[in-house]
Amino acid sequence: MSDLFITDPFITRLDANQSDFAARLDQLLAWESVSDARVADVVEDILQQVKTRGDAAVIEYTNRFDRRNVQRMAELFITAKQLQAALSQITSEQRRALETAAERIRTYHQYQLQSSWRYTEADGTVLGQQISAMERVGLYVPGGKASYPSSVLMNAIPAKVAGVNELTMVVPAPDGELSPMVLAAAAIAGVDRVITIGGAQAVAALAFGTETITKVDKIVGPGNIYVATAKRAVFGQVAIDMIAGPSEILVICDGLTDPDWIAMDLFSQAEHDEQAQSILLCPDADYLDKVEMAMQRLLPTLSRQAIAEVSIKNRGALILVKDIAQAIAVSNRIAPEHLELSVAEPENLLPQVRHAGAIFMGRHTPEALGDYCAGPNHVLPTSGTARFSSPLGVYDFQKRSSIIMCSPAGASELSKVASVLARSEHLEAHARSAEYRIK
């Protein structure tokens, strides 16, 4: 079976105990970050045009890139009546699914709400932290024939739970096409305003504001390379959620889960796009063979076979490990977006997992449930950023302000300390300001 540990035409096979494993793993994980010079130049021009020309530039780019024939900005706004009408355009089964998912997402995120707090010291000085929601947030949703209602729910509901005053959704409508499912999701999630614009021009309008679009405090939501590049460019002018890389799944299996299940779990990410990554770690070489055979058999049954096949061939891997402990170590090295623990006792492994965006525990918890309706957010850190980043949540739409209220006695004592430190930094006005409060 040694031939299995060189690159296979269908999927890469690796052995975590071979001398070149670290180098081969790094090569497998390598992914070029978003954007290039040409894209950056195009985006910079669009940002400048929208910043200086406002609505006129937004209309011009929308007509050009989305093949629209819009004369006034009002034509790009979706009315509340249209949003509600979308609920009747979808099937009752689709509406129930959206409402069930929305309720589960809302319930989960309500547990994330942070509260203001304070404490009082012996001399009467009060210290604390005030939690407040952002006022305005912009949500970018891919549009056209593509339908991503789950993206609407996952981004909008945490913002509304946090107490965001005004949530503006932008969604492109190329050739005037809009998904009723996306609009229905916006209605269910409580989006305040929907504007049918997309691309870098939509990001610019949200970041800078125009005559009819109010500047937001934060922009969230996925988009293409132009959207991602624009978000990166306006960061600092506004906050952004993250610059996401390709979707990823890493499965740790003990070799006892149905191979078809694991094969389809791997495909659930591979079908996203050609750059998506699907990796399986297992200590049983025979089981890896079974999963590979299942993948070869099931791949032709996928409607997105062409995409999944490229993803699996170029970025997928089946990795033989010595034991489950080594599998956890490799997983922590990768820091995957989605981690499935398809083992008998996943709870026993949980304390050892240091880095993962979301952890799916047990054989009956496929990653796909997290994408849609389990409750936790599906906006997750990718490309190893789970080492220092977290899933999108209510906390991303809340701000913290420090509270300091000194009593006269407390001010006197603290001012003595502040005076010494300020003068050691040669900041005389700081010191004298504090010294005025010394009794």
Model description:
- The chain is 44% helix and 16% strand.
- By secondary structure, the protein is of the alpha/beta class.
- It has three domains: 172 residues, Nitrogenase molybdenum iron protein domain (Rossmann fold, 3-Layer(aba) Sandwich), CATH 3.40.50; 188 residues, 3-Layer(aba) Sandwich (Rossmann fold), CATH 3.40.50; 30 residues, no CATH class.
- The longest helix has 19 residues.
- The termini are far apart.
- The N terminus is likely disordered.
C-alpha-based Rg, rounded: 26 Å
Basic shape: globular
Given the helix and strand composition, which structural class is it? alpha/beta
**Mean of residue pLDDT values:** 95
Question: Tally the helices: what do you get?
Answer: 17
* Strand neighbour order, sheet with most strands: 1-12-11-10-13-14
Low-confidence stretches at least 5 residues in length (pLDDT < 50)?
Answer: 1-8
- For the record, the CATH architecture of the largest domain stands as 3-Layer(aba) Sandwich
Number of domains: 3
**Major β-sheet annotation:** 6 strands, parallel
Residue share in helix? 40-55%
User: Briefly, what CATH class of the largest domain?
Assistant: Alpha Beta
Number of strands: 15
The percent range for strand residues is: 15-25%
CATH topology of the largest domain: Rossmann fold
The CATH homologous superfamily of the largest domain corresponds to Nitrogenase molybdenum iron protein domain
The termini sit apart by 83 Å
